[in-house]
Automatic annotation (TrEMBL):
Limits of the Phosphoribosyltransferase domain: 52-144
Record family assignment: Belongs to the purine/pyrimidine phosphoribosyltransferase family.
One GO CC annotation: cytoplasm
Source species taxonomy: Bacteria, Pseudomonadati, Pseudomonadota, Alphaproteobacteria, Sphingomonadales
A Pfam family of this chain: Pribosyltran
InterPro entries: Ade_phspho_trans, Adenine_PRTase, PRTase-like, PRTase_dom
Keywords: Cytoplasm, Glycosyltransferase, Purine salvage, Transferase
GO molecular function: adenine phosphoribosyltransferase activity
Protein's gene: apt
GO process terms (BP): adenine salvage; AMP salvage; purine ribonucleoside salvage
Protein name (record): Adenine phosphoribosyltransferase
Amino acid sequence: MSIDSLTALIRTIPDFPKPGIMFRDVTTLLADGPGFAELVDRLVNVARPLDVDLIVGIEARGFILGAALAHALGKGFVPVRKKGKLPGKVVGIDYVLEYGTDRLELHEGQVPQGARVILVDDLIATGGTALAAAQLLREQGASVLMALFAVDLPDLGGKTALEADGVASQALIVFEGE
C-alpha cells in the first residue's frame, strides 16, 4: 500500500474543533485493517535500526501507535499521560498551550536512566506536547533518539521546533498548507 493510499484513509473534518481548523482524523486509518497494518509496518521500518530500549507514547492516539510499534519490536511501552491519570508516584512537566497550560506525567522510575527511547504520537502540529514529553524524558535521564509521527502538519512548525531542540523527527504522511 502506498503513502497516497494511507493518506486517503485519513478523514479531514473542516472547522473542528473551531472554525478554520482542518482536523486530520487518523481514526479512519486505524479502523482500516490493511491500512493500520501498513502504517505500523512503516513505523517499524523507521524505528528498528535505532535499537531502542523503550517506546513512549503520548496520550491518546500515541498509545495506539506506540503500543503496536513496541509489540512489533519486542520492546516495552511507556505512556505519557495528562495530569492526574496515572496512579502512584509520578514525575511531570508543565507546558504552555495556546490558551493556558497543561501537564504531562509518567510513572516515576519507569524510564531508566540512560534508556534509549522513541517518542510516538499520531500527529505533529505545533509540537508543544511533543517538546514537553521529550523534555520530561530527558529530565529522567533518557536519550530521545527520535520523535515519530504518522502525520505532520508542517505549516504549524512542530517538527521544525523538535529538531531545533535536538530531537530527530520523522512523519510518514505530510499535509502541506493545513
